[in-house]
Amino acid sequence: MQMMTAINTIFVEKGKGEQVTARFAKAKAVHTFEGFIRMEVLLKEDAEERDEVKVCTTWEDRKYFENWLHSRENSKAHDVKAPSTEPSPILGNEVTTFAVKVQHLPVQSSAVK
């Protein structure tokens, strides 16, 4: 198995990044998928032209990410909802994947003497 991280970079209208990150505050279906390790949602600081949100998910192996990517739950999570009176602030996105080669976790306090 080879742990991997997928990063979905979402380009957002300037000043709307907080609005988009708030959509991820509540855990959804991805958190229940086999092989899912964690999700981090990052908002770029000091963005000049547009806001940038990075949704990073880490998986035990690429096959688990692929299962999520092609799942009904993923499609449902990304379906466009009923028409809104306000247009979406999302300008576009780009997904990149990375093999996790090195990872350091905090040392447990009881292990440090």
Characterise the protein shown here.
- There is one protein chain.
- The protein is α+β, with helices and mostly antiparallel strands and 113 residues long.
- The protein has one domain: Alpha-Beta Plaits, CATH 3.30.70.
- The protein is built from 3 helices and 4 strands.
- Strands 2-3-1-4 form a 4-stranded antiparallel β-sheet.
- The longest helix has 8 residues.
- The chain is globular.
Number of structural domains: 1
Overall geometric form: globular
Evaluate the radius of gyration: 16 Å
Range of strand content: 25-35%
What is the CATH top level name? Alpha Beta
Low-pLDDT segments, ≥5 res: none
What would the CATH topology be?
Answer: Alpha-Beta Plaits
Average pLDDT, all residues: 90
* Number of separate helices: 3
Helix content: 10-25%
Could you give the count of β-strands? 4
> Which CATH architecture?
2-Layer Sandwich
Q: Report strand order across the widest sheet.
A: 2-3-1-4
Specify the biggest β-sheet.
4 strands, antiparallel
* Measured distance between first and last alpha carbons: 33 Å
Which structural class fits the helix and strand makeup? Answer: alpha+beta
Series of H and E elements: EHEEHHE
